[in-house]
Amino acid sequence: MNVFIIAFAVGGATMLGSVAGYALRYNNKKIDGAVFSFSAGIMTAASFSELILPCADEGTLMFMCCLLGIIFGGALIVVLQRFIRIFEKRFPPLRGDLTEDKTQKRNGALLFAAAIAIHNLPEGLAAGVGAASGDVKKAVTIAAGIALQNVPEGMIVIPPLTHAGLSRKKAALISVFTGVIEIIGTFLGYFAASAAEKIMPVILCVAGGTMLYIICADILVDGAEAAGKKASGFSFLAGCCAMLVMERMF
Predict the structure, then answer these.
(1) Over 140-161, what HEC string results?
(2) How far is it, in rounded angstroms, from Cα 37 to Cα 46?
(3) Distance linking the first and last C-alpha atoms of the chain
(4) Taking the CB of residue 29, how many other CB atoms lie within 10 A of it?
């Protein structure tokens, strides 16, 4: 399937959410948390049904390689997060005339946006790898699932930034940038998979591992804190069901 269509579908969904968040002046922490958990459900179901399980059925050797690929995917995200922290320490945001409290809020909001951008990268990788697999059904299902949860995700980046003192326009632009990261990730996943067709199953599992790590370490934690455990849990299950329904439809 055409990687350009996939890339701009998943990235464009985030940008659409950014525009909607800018226009609607949306702000509700509990709904934000539910959206996070719903997204986690979609990504978890997609990781297993479309990326990991099909590859695990290709023999014992490939099964072991897939297990290693999942672990490597998680380690890759840890390394990326480490680089972000190093960058933050060396190039802290300029304070200007902000108070200490405002500075802390702005730093926290920018780190939140960075976290969204980081977890958009593995989503893009998964979409790109799906496009490179040659399986149209798989590519469409993965892209549709990611795009579905990207619209509200683009919206929830804006309120923390505006509360920290940024203008709505700047907050919307930062949210749009998180969608650009997803487009970049899609092309990276596509070209990496195309250049190494023989190890496609392992690459699929690496993409799945990156998504699963982000889900467990970041998204579910943030969702439960914002929406509460019960709301987060049911939102997660709703996301899993939504992904299974889309898989059946396509």
Answers:
(1) HHHHHHHHHHHHHHHHHCHHHH
(2) 14
(3) 14
(4) 13
Residue appearing with tokens 């960058």: 87
7 burial via Cβ count (<10 Å: 0-12, 13-18, 19+):
buried
Q: How many C-beta neighbours within 10 Å does residue 199 have? A: 16
Which residue has 């326009």 as its token pair? 169
Q: Work out whether the CA dihedral 97, 101, 102, 106 comes out positive or negative.
A: positive
- The single-letter DSSP state of residue 93 is P
CB 15 within 8 A of CB 176: yes
Whose tokens are 């297990």? That residue is 67
220-227 vs 29-46: helix axis angle to the nearest 10?
150
Scan for tokens 């496609």, then name that residue.
200
What angle (nearest 5°) sits at the alpha carbon of residue 185, between those of residues 182 and 189?
140
Quick one: residue 134, left, alpha or beta (phi over 0 = left, psi -120 to 50 = alpha)? Answer: left
CA 27, CA 87: separation in Å to the nearest integer?
Answer: 29
Each residue's pLDDT, cut to its tens digit, for the chain (250 residues) gives: 578 889 999 999 989 988 888 887 666 778 878 888 888 888 898 888 878 887 777 778 888 888 999 999 889 888 877 876 776 666 554 444 445 555 566 666 666 677 677 767 777 888 888 888 778 887 888 888 888 878 877 887 787 777 767 788 888 888 898 899 889 989 988 888 777 766 778 878 888 888 888 888 877 888 898 889 999 999 999 989 988 887 777 6
